[in-house]
Amino acid sequence: MSELVALKHEFERIENIIVVDWGVSNVCNYRCSYCPPDTHKGDCKFVPIEDILAFSNRVVDHYKKKLGKEIYFLYTGGEVTLYKDFITLIKAQHEAGNKIGISSNGSREVEFWKEAKHYLQHVSLSYHSEFTNIDHFIDVINEIKDTSYVHVNIMMHPDHFQQCIDAAYRIYEETDEITIDLQVITKNFQEPYDYSDEQRQKMLDVSKELNSKLKLHRERIGYRGLMKLVYDDGSERLIKGGEVITEKLHSWTGWKCNVGLELLVIDMQGNIKRSWCGDAPVIGNIKDEVLEFPTEPHVCKKEWCTGGVTDTMVTKYKK
Ligand code: SF4
Q: What positions does the domain Radical SAM core occupy (predicted)?
């Protein structure tokens, strides 16, 4: 029987991208019942723009100038669009030749998006049934969809199930150039909600239906995509990052893992890590005067990869 020897990206060029996954604060204007308070309680204020740009320059020096990599800043939160210097930040990073993506609840006014869209390659918008104004959400999508690549996540609250289904159809009908997913939610990002069998089936059916008729007219250039399982007999199989975990293939003890070369994680306190899994030591803090960025892969010591889909979607190989 053939043996798995590597997990790679479907497209080789993606291995040359470093994603800087940055949670810049936990300030948020929503209080979704399923979100842990740590993600919206507001005690980690936004990092000053001078600090973000100074650190960005160090990332550019190491990863772009020294290692020849493409840099992709991915901002999450909290709600990053509430940052008073957000447009200044993304404009500066865009003009420095970097790509930028964000996760957002889409609540900022359309005028804001009219400007921001020019600097954002990817925008992942989440529909939160307890707070989202659907008319505004659709207006925002239609404002940015021809400039940024837009993905919509419908957060499927079981108590507002039909509202979420209706929102998915309305968003699909009244926009184009988007991809869309119906996301199962967990209480505080941990304990799964009790969906009925009927609700689970409905989510699968609607997801399948909408994904079979996406209205995409522009070619999409991603910073991540499908992964590829590579076996010692030379055979390969394409797989989604999440499926690697579902199929329980996510054990790579002793393998080389490109965390720190394809992924940097920066938490709300400014601590810099190679990944979410915490297997490699913390690199330092964005304010440290001396920082040593990785130049080699990390050898995995964990029995199971615990960093979720983001960590899974990083190249790993046995030798
Ligand atoms: S646990 Fe960490 S080091 Fe190990 S394979 Fe996963 S991401 Fe890489």
A: 14-224
Residue 310 phi/psi, 5-degree rounding, is -60, -45
The answer to whether residue 282 sits within a structural domain is no
Q: What angle do CA 257, 258, 261 make, to 5 degrees?
A: 155
Question: Mind listing the pLDDT tens digit for each residue in 74-91?
Answer: 998 889 999 999 999 999
Query: CA-based Rg of the chain, rounded to a whole angstrom?
Result: 20
Looking at residue 221, its pLDDT comes to 84
Mutate to test the pocket of ligand 1, among 257, 304, 313 (most ligand atoms within 8 A of CB): 257
Q: Is residue 113 part of a domain?
A: yes
Convert 76-96 to b/e letters by CB count within 10 Å (16 or more is b).
bbbbbbbbeebeebbebbbee
User: How would residue 223 be classed by pLDDT, with cut points 50, 70 and 90?
Assistant: confident
pLDDT tens digits, residue range 27-66?
999 999 888 888 788 888 888 999 999 999 999 999 999 9
Q: Is a pLDDT exceeding 90 seen at residue 11?
A: yes
Cα–chain center distance at 251: 22
Residue 35 and residue 188 in contact, taking contact as beta carbons nearer than 8 Å: yes
Pocket-testing residue among 262, 275, 276, 309, ligand 1, by greatest number of atoms within 8 A of Cβ: 275
> Is there a domain that residue 30 lies in?
yes
Instruction: Give the contacts of 228 (CB within 8 A, at least 6 positions apart).
Output: 7, 8, 9, 10, 236, 237, 238, 239
* Ligand 1 atom 6 nearest Cα: 305
Q: Does residue 117 sit within a domain? A: yes
